[in-house]
Backbone:
């Protein structure tokens, strides 16, 4: 029956409905818990693209109005008709393009196809003659909503529907209990391969469109445009042996990342880069709780579990894409070709099918886009260590160890690095605390600060050999023909055992002054000998100024006991014009900042070595990429090839 | 590894604390000697000859 205004028109007998795994039936009533008005399922429209068949359920609200209940992206959607926005014609739409629908917001075109009305039952809001062609485009909103642009069979837009995801349990549909029985019935089916006779055990027969026999590799399907149950499948492509051996057993069941899965099929994909063929395997998984289809991609032993995401929630850029606030960096962009398939598939998979695959990474996560002429799909997922695959799927044979670094493999030392940085930070803070306490507790007492005037004739120490001056009261100079004077300081005292900072300064300018120093403990006769130096040279060489040396230098003495000391200096220079004076300053008990830096360096050695290890790890990761870690494409030829 | 790092780090901290409060220093370029008893009087180490070896 089809409605035309208030009239109802009988459209007669239609084709037989294809069995599907849909939980709904015409006549069911729903009393949703919240947000949605009560409705009744009054009709069912079955559609086909030739590669698969799906149902859309016509629901009539008790308060008036209608909507469609559909299943897509592994979820149920209630699609409401809305006033049509201004949109391009169907031919001008491209999967992946962003549409600004004004008040409705931004949407991404995910699919642009034509389909036929395959069959129907019950009451429909329009005439849907079986076999009639119509064109549509699916769009995805930034808030995760799903929309459909219904173009009918003419260029203009006939209808616009936007839906939101609904949970089956929230819809309050009477009679849904029977679905569990149907799910069980549809969850397994045994049949024999029409080519080799091998016993096939299908895990998802109600949705299976293609089967690649796990014994002979032959591709099975329905000759009549993908319709019909697997029991009626025929040989579409005959093979005598399996084209490849997936590492995961097809049909195996288990749990990954807390979700129950069954492995349905495996697709061997290939791409050519720089004249080399690269292969990887993508496993089709069915999440048995939500009935959603996920992917497990395996490359060089590295696994990534991917689930479909709404294209409208992805903002794609040339170098980065964002999804729900997370930013992913582009890693690879290649045409991916199906080299071989095995197992059961929910679409008409075929060898040679090529899509453009673009991977963005934010380890351990990956955002992946697969685009073809008619549709674009986004998936997002996380790296799964092989040990989790082995345990989750209860594999009898261990998987081979991964080679190289996976695209979104997390750095194995990340946890350790975090702990080490944290520990180093705590210890470093403690070291700074110790330094501050030492500064507070240390005497930092200047015990000697004296400038020796070298100009005063009486105190001249730069006497010519053999003409040394007479000793002054505080120091003794002994003329012996070959030496200058020796200086002795006044005695001074230190109050506790501590280090001693000896600073020496002279206004040297392209000359030098040195002094052999002896710190003599009057009580014990201990002598600490060291050398003090001031030298400063500068000039211009080849138009460039240079300088070296220093007018001031410091020497440190260790753990000097408390006591009375005298400093003896034996100055020397070979300059005809030495500085007029030099200054010696001795400070007792000065905590050294240098020691703090040494300790901080030692504390951060471990974390820093991990940082270097991380950089090397990332280097190995990005050596496998088509792009540099900054996001620019490595091979310009490849880019031009892609653009063409 | 974490235990080793923690032990080493704590060790560094203890040594640093001891050095900071005791006044230890590597004292690079310094030498320590003891004057003979005969040189400890005023006429001893204060004399030029004591240091120059009579030259």
Residues:
């Amino acid at each position: 029956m089809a409605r035309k205004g208030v009239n109802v028109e009988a459209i007669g007998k239609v084709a037989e409905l294809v069995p599907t795994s849909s939980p709904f039936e015409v006549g069911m009533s729903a009393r949703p818990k919240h947000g949605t008005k009560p409705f009744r399922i009054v009709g069912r429209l079955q559609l086909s693209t030739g590669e698969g068949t799906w149902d859309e359920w016509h629901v009539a609200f008790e308060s008036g109005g209608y909507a469609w209940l559909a299943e897509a992206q592994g979820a149920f959607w209630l699609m409401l008709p809305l006033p049509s926005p201004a949109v391009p014609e169907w031919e001008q739409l491209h999967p992946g393009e962003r549409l600004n629908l004004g008040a409705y917001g931004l949407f991404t075109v995910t699919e642009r196809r034509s389909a036929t009305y395959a069959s129907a039952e019950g009451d429909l809001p329009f005439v849907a003659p079986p076999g009639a062609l119509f064109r549509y485009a699916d769009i995805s909103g930034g808030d995760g909503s799903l929309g459909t642009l219904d173009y009918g069979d003419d260029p203009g837009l006939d209808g616009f529907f936007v839906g939101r995801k609904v949970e089956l349990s929230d819809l309050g549909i009477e009679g849904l209990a029977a679905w569990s029985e149907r799910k069980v019935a549809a969850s397994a089916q045994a049949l024999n391969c029409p080519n080799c006779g091998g016993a096939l055990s299908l895990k998802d027969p109600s949705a299976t469109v293609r089967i690649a026999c796990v014994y002979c590799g032959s591709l099975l399907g329905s000759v009549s445009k993908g319709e019909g149950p697997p029991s009626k499948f025929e040989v579409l492509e005959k093979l005598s042996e399996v084209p490849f051996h997936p590492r995961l057993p097809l049909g195996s069941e288990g749990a990954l990342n807390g979700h129950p899965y069954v492995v349905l099929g495996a697709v061997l994909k290939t791409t050519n880069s720089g004249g080399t063929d690269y292969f990887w395997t993508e496993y089709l998984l069915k999440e048995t709780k939500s009935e959603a289809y996920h992917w497990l991609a395996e490359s060089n032993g590295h696994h990534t579990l991917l689930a479909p995401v709404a294209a409208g929630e992805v903002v794609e850029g040339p170098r980065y894409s964002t999804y729900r606030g997370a930013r992913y960096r582009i890693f690879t962009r290649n045409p991916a070709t199906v080299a071989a398939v095995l197992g059961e598939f929910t679409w008409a998979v075929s060898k040679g099918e090529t899509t453009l695959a673009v991977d963005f990474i934010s380890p351990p996560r990956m955002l992946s886009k697969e685009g073809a002429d008619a549709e674009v799909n986004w998936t997002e997922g996380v790296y799964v260590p092989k040990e989790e695959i082995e345990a989750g799927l209860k594999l009898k044979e261990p998987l081979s160890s991964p080679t190289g670094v996976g695209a979104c493999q997390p750095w194995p030392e990340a946890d350790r690095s975090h702990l080490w940085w944290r520990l180093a930070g705590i210890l470093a803070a403690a070291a700074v605390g110790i330094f501050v306490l030492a500064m507070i507790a240390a005497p930092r007492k200047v015990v000697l600060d004296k400038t020796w005037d070298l100009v005063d004739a009486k105190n001249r120490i730069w006497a010519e050999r053999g003409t040394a001056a007479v000793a002054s009261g505080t120091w003794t100079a002994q003329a012996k023909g070959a030496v200058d004077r020796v200086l002795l300081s006044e005695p001074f005292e230190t109050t506790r055992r501590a280090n001693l900072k000896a600073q020496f300064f002279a206004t040297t300018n392209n000359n030098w002054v040195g002094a052999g120093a002896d710190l003599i403990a009057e009580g014990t006769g201990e002598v600490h000998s060291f050398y003090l130096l001031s030298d400063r040279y500068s000039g211009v060489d080849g138009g460039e100024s240079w300088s070296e040396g220093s007018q001031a230098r410091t020497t440190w003495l260790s753990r000097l006991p408390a006591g009375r000391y005298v400093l003896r200096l034996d100055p020397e220079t070979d300059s005809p014009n030495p500085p007029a004076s030099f200054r010696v300053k001795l400070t007792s008990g000065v905590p050294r900042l240098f020691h703090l830096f040494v300790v901080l360096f030692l504390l951060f050695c471990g974390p820093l070595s991990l940082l270097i290890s991380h950089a090397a790890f990332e280097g190995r990761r990005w050596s496998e990429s088509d792009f540099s870690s900054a996001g620019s494409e490595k091979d310009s030829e490849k880019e031009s090839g892609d653009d063409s | 590894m974490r235990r080793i790092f923690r032990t080493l780090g704590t060790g560094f901290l203890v040594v640093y604390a001891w050095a900071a409060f005791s006044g230890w220093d590597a004292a690079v370029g310094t030498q320590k000697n003891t004057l003979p008893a005969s040189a400890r009087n005023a006429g001893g180490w204060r004399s030029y000859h004591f240091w120059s070896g009579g030259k």
Remarks:
- The longest helix of chain B spans residues 2-22.
- The radius of gyration of chain B is 21 Å.
- Chain B has two helices and one strand.
